[in-house]
Amino acid sequence: MSDDSLAAVRINQELCSRCKVCYSLCPFEAIEILPEGKLVHNFQKCQVCGICYSACPASAIEISYYDYEGLLDHVRSACRHDKAETLVVMCRGNSPKSGEVEDILASEGLNTKCYIPMRVPCAGRIPTNFFFRALKSGVKNVVSIQCQDDFCRMKEGTQIGTRRIMLGDAVVQSLGYPENTLKVVKFSRKVIRINKECVGCGKCVFVCPYGAISAEPFSTPTTDPEKCMGCGSCQLVCPHNAILVKGYAYEDILASYAGAAERMKAHSTHPSILVLSCQWSEYSVLDDPEKTLKGKNAMILEVPCFKGMDPVHVVSAFSRGYDGVMAVVCPTNDCKLPLGRDTSERQLEVLMAYLKRLGLEDRFEIHELSPRLGDDFLKVFDEFSQKIAAMPHRSVPVQKGAQ
Asked: Which terminal residue of the chain has fewer beta carbons within 10 Å of its beta carbon, N or C?
């Protein structure tokens, strides 16, 4: 990260009333008070959760991602063009896949076909007034799919978001809206064990940094869902694909990129690049990859955490014809799931040694990025793409795998 990059959160001192609401709510102590009483933003501590932005009564905090008016325009557009009636707000740390969202809506008795998905870093960043204006724009129901309290990557975000929804629903009921017009649904992505594939090797037991997996004397290991944080480290070490984080299963990820390199090479002379990105290290590209990477002959895949980034996909990408692979992860101090990071770093050392044996070490790079510095991703990507383009052409047959 470069210090001259564009900071994603700023305090407009001309508007700031020094009420200290942001200071009291920031889960990461990124708002500091100077001796003269001035409030300043420490961007090195900031995790861009948006809680300060949504709580400021003077609108003195500016933010680069998911700003209030931008989100509202998204809702209005969907209501106007798609005739959508339900707004589904999802935390980045647990956002369900489309089929899962429909199952949740069906369980709540809502229309499963016509809804507006809105994925944000934290439920706590949405102010109560936003929901009122969404209802005024044509939305009839709001479902906030939030992390379980202990699962929240932003510490206090889920609790703040839940209180706002409960308050908002009480207000709209007083105005004549039905009960539960604004509703909270708790959903946290946990691991799933496929017992018939498990051989009881116990690797998942030893690698789980949260003590969520326990060995059993005469059966397969068991997982405590209350302790599981969905980081994916157990999935990474399982030799039989018997344990997975739903939505990030090995075969699903493989299928998403297996045939893409061949298609890229057929339509462009630029090097084909695969990007593996932790969902917390990059926001804008993961939310709209087609727009951000248009014309760059690249595709980006999301992983739940550095610990869930399987080195096998890096090697597989090269064997399937990609010219370069870039990984994007959070800096150590920014990691939302810091326990067990040493395991990921050891996996990286093994990967680099193997790529060196294959002569591919220069075609793989890993970068530590943070969304609090808004313009770093494209700078790093363009530099990497230019580096790969300057290398000799790789004459490697593309494997015919899952398409």
From this structure: C
